[in-house]
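Supplementary Data S3. Sequence and structure tokens for construct A.
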Amino acid sequence: MPHDTRVATLITAREHLEEVCAELARCPRLAFDTESNGFYAYKERVCLVQISSPTEDYIVDPIAIKELGPLGPLFADPGIEKLFHAGEYDVLCLKRDYGFAFSNLYDTMIAARVLGIKELGLAAAIERHFGLVISKKLQRADWGKRPLTHEMIKYAQGDTHFLMRLADEQKKSLVEQGRWDDALESFRELEKLEPNVRTFDPEGYWKLVGRQEIGGQAMAALKEIWLYREQQAESRDRAPFRVMPEDLMARVAQALPETREALAAVKGMSPYILERFGSGLLACVERGRAAPPVVRPPRPEKRRMADDEFRVFEALRVWRKERAERDKVEPVVILSGDSLRQIAAFACRHDGNPLGPLSDLKKTRYGEDIRLVVQKARGEAPKPG
């Protein structure tokens, strides 16, 4: 919660949003956050957009304003620095729901990770830098509900209110530690992320908890229950896991209950689920009993690393751990696991150049070390870079 008396402006009309965005376009930097309802709704959507300028805080209501087009030019403008904390989720949601493009992002959580800070949450950063304790009790609030309470607005306001001051302190440390370019490279990667839109997998029941103990007609019943839960979640606009937990679905299928009493005896069956979905579950079991046995679809084969490639990968992991300890940062700040796999693949399966997948910054900073690690892992004599 903001420590001063600044009151956030709630924006619920398109005309108001256009006026505010025209003013914000003059600001050299802005802080943003979003709140979504994925914990509650069948189809997640952005429910709030919080904005802080150097002098004002705003709360935009996307449920009242169906189209947020005026925000697009702000996100895309390379002349305006956009600040987020743990912005990956926000950027992906805004791209998914509105098709926005982003440039000139700064992420205070990414910056903290590059600086080697262990506690990456915003509340921890605010307490560490400003001595203020932020309540977390609304983290799981249903942001799709209206009207918004005064407490919800104040909580949401706090997610952007401090970001500029926090970024100012971080930038000094990043420059002092010679890590600004590392942070900048990660910010540019954040801008390029693309969302994966959730789609229902009718074969997803094979992945359910407890499926290893299920066979025969029980699998046919589990398939019916899986399809039934999805239909109920969509019709009620609820997240599927809030309709019925996966482990319970597996136990019902395994038990194959024929009566309401037998269904009630299944471990984890609550009165709420029994009352609302009992008849539907029994119908699923009945259809499963009458259906042909379910045959598992063939699994796509995963490419396994060749022995020489795996040796290079493991050697790189050891080197990365040692380098991270020396630099006092998390290993992912040095290189991601995917990058290590790509290096190993390039070294063993492409042209033999392990630095092929790396950025210029990573090549300059770690290139010589990586060459030596790869050469040693492959039993090669050292070669000049």
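Construct B, processed identically:
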Amino acid sequence: MLLSGALAALAAALCWTLASFCWRRLPISLGAAELNLLKNALGLALLLPLQLLVWQPLPTTAWLLLGASGVLGIAAGDSLFFAALRRLGTRTTLTIEAAAPVVTTLAGLAVLAEGPGPAQLLGLGLVSAAVVMVAQCQQSDGAAWGHQPGWRQGVLLALLAVLCASGGALLSRQVLAAQLISPWQAASLRLGAATLAQLPLAPGLLAVARAGVGPRPPRRRWPWVLLATLLGTTLGIALQQAALAQLPVGQAMTLMATAPTMAVLLAPLDRDQPGFTGLLAALLAAFGVWMVVR
């Protein structure tokens, strides 16, 4: 179970990294919240047929906790993440998101009594150090990183996204640790709650779609939308639930925070130059992850 949970967490990180890259390249006039509603509705539509095979009854408490997890972690957290992604880029946003394991581990210790051992604490410290290194790298690259338009707002949005993601994972872990539930069903319930919470944004989404704001892009957008939704929403959230069902919440979130390491490989395609310090930080984060799972 520990091995399969670790593999599920790493696979979820890979899916989210690729999905972030797709969303970043997507020419679209929607705001962050409307874009989040679009991908949640599409992801829910893709997951619903599977419910005929895996659906099972759950107590009311499980419904409420998974619903709250979806609203906090997906409706609010992903909207904040998209807003930060547009201001900071893929690698920087994902690196700030690497602070989530520290927040989630402390919350898991306080709420679920899931305390990490010495090796896990060292791994969390290394991941946190990698976040600081990347920030120092960006500030010393001579690009006036801290003075770019929207930078401060982007950092604040990314940190709020960390809090929402950690809270959503903690709520989901409470259900998955106590109930025998399919990851697909858990993902569907979370997506359903997130979509319902964002329904007031639907008229604005439809208005933008009908108006066709902005020039027509030179390439079709729907393949990118579909690919990003399949990777980040449908498959990524299901893998996240599988990892949370089999690992303590802090360890699962640490493994899923390896996205910055994977994002370094995509940096040239995103017109980003991580440099030597960025590569070193990614390796340090990878070593921290190894300390957590060894």
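The radius of gyration is 18 Å. The chain has one domain: 2-53+61-210+230-293.
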